[in-house]
């Protein structure tokens, strides 16, 4: 049996310090952690308690630093300036493929996929929903809820709201509140992406969204937007500074902490997918040493009664 306190077997995403965005500098190993070097100073990074490291433009990182980040189950994301582009990411720390296989099975069956989508909508509304409502009707209800959230924040902050509109090819042409919303949502997507990978799920296999490499990220992030990113964006636009996107990131960091978002994401994913309780699920996933070779698949028709998959040394 493996010790469930091992971070590779039981990644404690909820205990992390959210994320850190760095740009225009270089990162290398520093003792058993890492450090960020700018032109004028060296800043140690508490990698052991960090969930995600975002690397912006002008950033270089050593092989040893990447190894240290991987050893500490810290997701590395390569992103654009102000984190408004997502280019690539590393691999999460969970070795078992069981969560991914379950997610794929749920998404591949129309009935089970509909069940997950309904649970996600119910979690957004924080109330039971009529089982007779179609997905199109639920989308309509969600649209009304989001528009009401925008209108409420517009009234509270005094920021005029003319609808969600921005051009990724001409970022500066958008009004401040739309830029703030995009920046805030980008931070939320990164955090949800890290949580999804830390559990061993795929960010691409969505239930409401589909067809994109981050479809499941969008599904999960939508659970929190009206609570987290919409208020942050309107408040940041009201107190607009020269560096609006940085102000949004700092406000997101504080809001994530205030709402204890890190502690909520993984249980919410498991609730949406109808998973067992977290500790029971993890105990099942890591019952065997993850360093052992993977089991070999055998068709049911060829298995004898009571015969399970065998592990063959590689």
Describe this entry's structure for a reader.
With 314 residues, the protein is α/β, with parallel strands linked by helices. The protein has 2 domains: 13-89, Ribosomal Protein L15, Chain: K, domain 2, CATH 3.100.10.20; 98-273, CRISPR-associated endonuclease Cas1, C-terminal domain (Four Helix Bundle (Hemerythrin (Met), subunit A), Up-down Bundle). Helices cover 43% and strands 11% of the residues. The strands form 2 sheets. A 4-stranded mixed sheet has the order 1-5-7-8. Strands 4-3-2-6 form a 4-stranded mixed sheet. Strand 7 and strand 8 form a beta hairpin. The protein is flat. Mean pLDDT is 80; it is low at 1-11, 278-289 and 306-314.
Key features of this structure:
single chain, 314 residues, alpha/beta, Ribosomal Protein L15, Chain: K, domain 2, Four Helix Bundle (Hemerythrin (Met), subunit A), four-stranded mixed sheet, 43% helix, disordered N terminus
Q: Could you give a short description of this structure?
A:
43% of the residues lie in helices and 11% in strands.
User: How does CATH name the architecture of the largest domain?
Assistant: Up-down Bundle
Shape: flat
Radius of gyration: 21 Å
SSE arrangement, N to C: EEEEEEHEEHHHHHHHHH
Number of helices: 10
Straight-line N-to-C gap: 20 Å
- Report the sheet-strand fraction: 5-15%
Structurally, the number of domains stands at 2
């Amino acid at each position: 049996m493996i010790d469930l306190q091992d971070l590779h077997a039981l990644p404690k995403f909820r205990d992390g310090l959210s994320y850190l965005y760095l740009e225009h500098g270089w990162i290398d190993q520093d003792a058993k952690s890492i450090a960020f070097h700018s032109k004028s100073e060296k800043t140690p990074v508490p990698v052991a308690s960090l969930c995600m490291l975002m690397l912006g433009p002008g950033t270089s990182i050593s092989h040893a630093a990447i190894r240290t980040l991987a050893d500490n189950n810290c997701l590395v994301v390569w992103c654009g300036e102000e984190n408004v582009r997502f280019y690539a990411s590393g691999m999460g720390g969970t070795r078992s493929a069981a969560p991914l296989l379950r997610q794929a099975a749920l998404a591949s069956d129309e009935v089970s996929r509909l069940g997950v989508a309904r649970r996600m909508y119910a979690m957004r509304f924080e109330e039971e929903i009529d089982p007779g409502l179609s997905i199109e009707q639920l989308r309509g209800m969600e649209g009304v809820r989001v528009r009401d959230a925008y209108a409420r924040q517009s009234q509270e902050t005094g920021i005029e709201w003319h609808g969600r509109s921005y051009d990724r090819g001409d970022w500066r042409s958008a009004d401040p509140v739309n830029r703030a919303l995009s920046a805030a949502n980008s931070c939320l997507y990164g955090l949800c992406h890290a949580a999804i990978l830390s559990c061993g799920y795929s960010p691409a296999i969505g239930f409401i969204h589909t067809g994109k490499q981050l479809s499941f990220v969008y599904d999960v992030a939508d659970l929190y937007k009206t609570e987290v990113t919409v208020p942050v964006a309107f408040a940041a636009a009201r107190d607009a500074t020269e560096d609006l996107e940085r102000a949004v990131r700092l406000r997101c960091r504080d809001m994530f902490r205030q709402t204890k978002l890190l502690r909520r994401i993984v249980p919410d994913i498991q609730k949406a997918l109808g998973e067992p309780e977290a500790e029971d699920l993890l105990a099942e996933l890591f019952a065997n040493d993850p360093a052992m070779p993977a089991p070999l698949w055998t068709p049911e028709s060829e298995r004898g009664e009571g015969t399970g998959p065998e592990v063959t040394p590689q």
